[in-house]
């Protein structure tokens, strides 16, 4: 029987379900009695939970990243749903399906990956194609690349999000290169593929999303250049000739410059046609994705505006329903 | 017999040709003798010219924007070509073809305009389609819209440049909307069409390119909103119902926010999906165009870099010739 | 019998009074029992209120902007006064005097408006005077212009605040033009009058203060230019000749540039004498008003400093009482 | 017989006149022959001058700041007037009237100073009045304060310019305090008087305008606080009681904060009513003065715009002549 | 018997001890019952405390800065320790050792001061040495200079912190001048000594750390110049000759420019070798101190990162224990 | 016989000497006659040179980076010295001593390198010492590292400048670590050594100083991380164990963060003690070196200020001679 997901819970429900522990805090109330304040999640979202009269012993039996089987009842508290727990058991992680507990791309990962292969392996430039092949035959790389989110909180923040983001830009680039004949097609496609590869090590995303130490201290731009360098050395085996130095330079440049400005963490501004195209296509995809999600997910239906989004520095206009589904009026 | 254009002149040529006066200065040399320092242009570019031993009387007979028939000889001076004039006559403007003297879009304007009509008139939203029709049946508007450059110096700075810029973005938008289903197609296409209409009054572009007083004091964002407002009032006649207020708001918002940031002159940040998409598509097209032109037109063939571009805040990488002509085309 | 206003309540008072609902939230306490958390206001300020053991049914009977007749008792909670409600009834809005419930200008609106007329109708420039007349005979405009606040939270944030702000700048300008003979008097006065007219549609201020959708998406600078444009077309009827284009340009420019810098939302910098004068006079008035209110209204009497003001980026120095009433020491 | 001033010279005039040397350079032409390139000035402006076939010996006989009696002939060179010298003699400075050689306030300095005394000595606050008296009875201070410019190049850059600037702000403040009753009149007037006193030592302005070493290393804000401190110590002698510490603090604060922002060199933001009022009144006066001068002095009559002003970051709109002299007033 | 310090308390302890009141708030709980929320401190840190069922009368008997003898019991509340008070008495300040209640430098103040004397009195430049002597024989100055913290919250925020900071920079400067022979040793050492002297009046640090009114309105840079000026006047008595003006200028410049940038509150950029050296040495010492403290004091042992530090704009990397004690592995 | 260097030439000298061509331009004068405009250099500086009546054929015989034997005569032209050439011959590069033609460190490179070895090989941490050894036994690396300048134009812009800069910081760090016991000595020293290694490939410095393509497109921060990565892989061979991952992370972080701010091209802010120490020590050394050179090399002896330095955003105060040599006055 299938589980009941977080986004299916409502006020007054009885709960008897497994969750991933995203956060755990042992607190005391005003009388000094201890209670556990948890954040529990599955792939559809997260929900707060409290266990009154907890003990330090119990609190030590699990950590964030572990799975719990919990029993309790939901209620609305200060506008949000929470579960008042009556019982909890630590679960053996082998007994759960991990993919049930982290947000996933709504798109089919295998299909996305096939599309990636299709677009990239059709390139004509032999060194770039060989380079891409070196990445795609690296099973560890592929496993991580297809699992990683594109971010912790912002755009495409779910498993498979990085792949979805990259394939979407590849699709867009594929379509519009016709209008920009001076842009080198193979160089741009390879740059799109590589621009965020550093993120597969910058982030950790097995049980929860976080930055790795290396991600915080070095960052995915520099890490991506290092990963590119490793693979380039092996490319010569496939092509029988050394990777052209200027081509390598152009790829490294696309990686380090794709944030577009020093204050956004790119140590160099885009200085080639393909680098500047990558920068805008990357932003276009990320911003449309972010705006769309903010507008779609805003729980306050009656308001025409989302709340203020700190990371965007603005509120977004949702407008009236009529505007959101213009086809409806046509078909009526 | 066809004229010899500026870009066909080289050192030591005899010249006997008509030009547009782009700039005129009467100067004195160290001995106090007066000479005329002119900038002459045709649609392929501009060239300096000097007439030694000029008089104030002669200098008063014409102004920038007039046409001259000049005779003289070319020479290289400080790295640039100039014409040492022996004779000049003011030309009756009716005797020249104006389109020979201002830079033109390399693309066929009529074809571009047809493509614009094709894309816009295929929209389903009745009010937006009616609005576009109101613009397209306004002959004065169309004459200006198809003649205006997109800027004085930067991207698409030639007659027809605005149309070329708009049609290119429309083409791109048309292709990629499939990947962004949440973006309202008709709203985005209309916004692309309208975003720079203010430029047809912000700039003057009959004989040379300049900002109008209104362009400098008010700017094409605000002017575009005013022009939209005028047409919206007439749209109701075509549809028989008032233009939906929220739709008008969304269009105005796209115009005022398309520069994307306050410091770039947009009084509002993009706050809708279509406004943020417009901002990035506009930048993508403008920057690729600018980068391409800088790299292509750089006269110093042997350098792998363009000179520093003040407006871009960087030099651009041209690379070696091999890179510029991907082998693929060679093999064909 | 007159009402007891918010600023007259103190700890332990019994309350039986009508208020405007400024905010409403239904919450649950830790035991899951629902309660209502309200913000109630009248023209003198706002006060928090709680109704324990509320129901969803009750909560649905009214919304922010409605009037309530409430009974309860005041108490201090976490340093602020709040009312613990025992009873509430929704009031028919026709039974209250709306002006009792929104903050009002402390000055007489009719007197302010007369002063505005007096200053503006004494102008000599016929087109500017005709333009002003077109605004002043528009009853809907006048009703809004004399009711609007100048802002939601910052300076002159009360009904009539916009008028008070404009008249104060007009008074100041009237006095100091003698010292700046190069500034065109009529142009400056008209610009002062027009600079914020967009606010009458940018804000909604009937029952509470907020931004309209158009206010957020387009902004009062662009909206003001549109309103000016509408009236200018009618001005010709009064003067029998078209409004001089350069004069219109100068007015539009004053409106769009009055924030003084791109990062403050003006798409153009002030480029005329009158525009730069308007910018500084507007700021002078707004900042003196804001500083004065912050210093005057700070409830912590014994401190020589106000709390940190986020919007000003600083604390303000109140100093000792002696400094606030220097006359006192003189008279002693 | 009165001298012919720089602003009276035109092309082809014979010159036999005394000038102040503003700049001197000994150069060689392409053939290696030395010539002197001078900038000569009087109170109406400056003009370039050249002496061909100069010697190092001659060049050593005078320095910038000395006076020369020169003979020669004017000519236009590259759009500017210059004098081709045939003879020069170094003049004994006692034989010239220094005030003929530096730009002066167009207003009567004695009258301005009387107005300053009138406004300041009418203050009621006894310590502030005593403080002002201490400054005004200091003859050396008064001599410098009435001679200093307000700047090297920007607003009020002429002898007496500082006084003119201060008196103009005092006049304005005097008129508008009625509308800002919360602003302390005596404190504001004293702050206006003191805000730029540091400039009398920050600048040197005897024979030419420049920054002193102290001006560049310490700046007029800090120097002004030091000068205030010196005088405050003597104020007690006049009043018989110590200067109130908070009053002193408020004055120091007005001096250090009057630039209004850290990036403009104020180490503190304005945090009192009087400090913020001073900041805007100072800017209003300086900017109107600068805009007025740029528009009035632009030599290119036919253009509706001034050239780009680096220090203002913009061009200024001059408009058509009609606008500059509104018909109404002329015809009245 | 020695007291038990804040940093020795743990969950469940009985407390009967004297503390300094750092903050006091009288609040009401949801039932309207009043309670006291205090922040109590001694030299090792601070701890929250609550007294349930307090009265306004009790709350008026003491203020922040007073000493209390309290009885109660500790408990952990929301992750922090707090004391639930059962009793409190106001203490006569003469009965406590003030140095027990404010954080102190961990270094011996007398020793630090001797080192300061040693380094400064060994200078060769007679005027600078005399200037330093004038400061060091001023007992009031020395008392404050050795007691002041270097800041409220940031680096060296404890009694004696300013002295420790200055001596540390002096030690560093002393060692490295050998490698920078162009830097004037005596000038740099004097500048290091003087750069923050304004802080002894900018801050108040007797019972708690705060900014004085003068500190907020004028700031320690300007205040330091004023203090320097006072002492320089007396220096002549020791040396028998006036203090060299350029030397004074260089010292003032070092004080006003040592923050290194206008946006950090320096009205002038460093423009001498010694000023730029001082700026970097000051920052080096402050930042190493701040980073070290943040890493050392972070209570969450198991995390490899500190929490986000608002004032630094980043988190700091603590790494694993092995890295923190590298000697340990060597000795094993 | 030894050569006469550029810094020994004066007006009117006959020249018969070899120089490196730093720049070459073929120009035409007003009469259309061609001439060569050269910049010639040796290790002491550069000088302009002109050959009148040149031909295109002659101009093609050499390029910048070649050596010429020239004859001619010096003269002062517009304040600078230039050589009017009468003859030039292209020189075989094997006939000159390259070190005579590029600016060199004034310090002995071998001595500097020994000091580097001495400090680094005394480290205790075995992996860091092994890492340094891997670099120091790489002869190609050492050859470049000891030849490279630290920059093109700014600090240490001469052959050996990078080594001098690094050794100077090592010396400083060595001395002051005693005062910062929490800073890890070996980590800091290694970071100082590595922070700029990318510059040996970012710059080209054989015959003239320039950025390489990789330097401009990728930059020395990212390039340094790549070089570190290469060597780390070999370090394991020396130590027999893998390089500790966290140690590598800390080194990479020091390289990428050493510019200290995103806007200066560091993609990450310093987040460890050693990274922040490196940032300030690097800046201290670079700025003292730059200030010292600007003050020392300013050719205008009589001015107390250097000209405005664009890259520093300021002028520097040189002061009077007395201040520059304070010891002199002491010894007299």
From TrEMBL, chains A, B, C, D, E, F:
Alphabetized UniProt keyword annotations: Hydrolase
Superkingdom assignment: Bacteria
InterPro entries assigned to the protein according to its UniProt record, in alphabetical order: HD/PDEase_dom, HD_domain, HDIG_dom, NA-bd_OB-fold, NA-bd_OB_tRNA, YhaM_exoribonuc/phosphodiest
Oxidoreductase as UniProt keyword: no
SMART domains membership: HDc (SM00471)
Pfam annotation, one family: tRNA_anti-codon
NCBIfam families found in the cross-reference section: HDIG
Stretches assigned to the HD/PDEase domain: 158-296
Official protein name in the record: HD domain-containing protein
């Amino acid at each position: 029987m299938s589980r009941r997901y977080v986004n299916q819970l409502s006020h007054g429900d009885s709960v008897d379900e497994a969750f991933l522990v995203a956060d755990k805090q042992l607190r005391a109330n005003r009388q000094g009695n201890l209670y556990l304040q948890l954040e529990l999640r599955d792939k559809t979202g997260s929900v707060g939970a409290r266990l009154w009269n907890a003990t330090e012993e119990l609190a030590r039996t699990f950590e964030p990243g572990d799975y719990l089987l919990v029993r309790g009842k939901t209620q609305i508290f200060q506008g949000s749903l929470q579960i008042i727990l009556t019982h909890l058991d630590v679960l053996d992680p082998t007994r759960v399906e991990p993919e049930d507990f982290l947000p996933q791309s709504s798109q089919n990962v295998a299909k996305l990956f096939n599309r990636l292969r299709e677009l990239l392996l059709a390139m004509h430039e032999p060194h770039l194609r060989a380079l891409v092949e070196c990445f795609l035959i690296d099973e560890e790389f592929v496993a991580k690349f297809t699992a990683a989110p594109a971010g912790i909180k912002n755009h495409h923040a779910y498993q498979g999000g990085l792949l979805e983001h990259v394939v979407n830009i590849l699709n867009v680039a594929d379509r519009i290169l016709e209008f920009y004949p001076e842009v080198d097609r193979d160089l741009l496609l390879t740059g799109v593929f590589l621009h965020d590869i550093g993120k597969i090590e910058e982030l950790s995303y097995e049980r929860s999303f976080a930055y790795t130490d290396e991600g915080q201290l070095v960052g995915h731009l520099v890490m991506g250049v290092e990963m590119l360098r490793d693979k380039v050395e092996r490319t010569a085996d496939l092509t029988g000739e050394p990777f052209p130095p200027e081509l390598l330079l152009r790829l490294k440049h696309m990686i380090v410059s794709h944030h577009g400005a020093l204050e956004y963490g790119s140590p160099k501004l885009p200085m080639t046609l393909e680098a500047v195209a990558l920068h805008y296509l990357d932003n276009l995809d990320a911003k449309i994705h972010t705006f769309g999600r903010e507008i779609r997910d805003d729980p306050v239906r009656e308001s025409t505006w989302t709340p203020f989004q700190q990371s965007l520095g603005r509120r977004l206009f949702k407008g009236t329903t009529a505007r959101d589904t213009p086809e409806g009026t046509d078909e009526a």
